[in-house]
Amino acid sequence: MSEPLARQIGSIRKNAIVSVCDHASNRVPEGVDLGLDDSAMQKHIAWDIGAAGVVEEMHRQAGFAAYLAQVSRLVIDLHREEDSPGLMPEVSDGQRVPGNVGADKDYRIKRFHRPYHAGMAAFLDEADPSLILSIHSFTPQMESNGAPRPWEIGLLYNQDDRAARHAIRFFEEAGCVVGDNEPYSGKQFNATMNRHAEAFGRPYCAIEIRNDLIADPAGQAKWAATIADVAARVATALQ
Question: Where does this protein have coiled-coil stretches (predicted)?
Answer without folding.
Answer: none
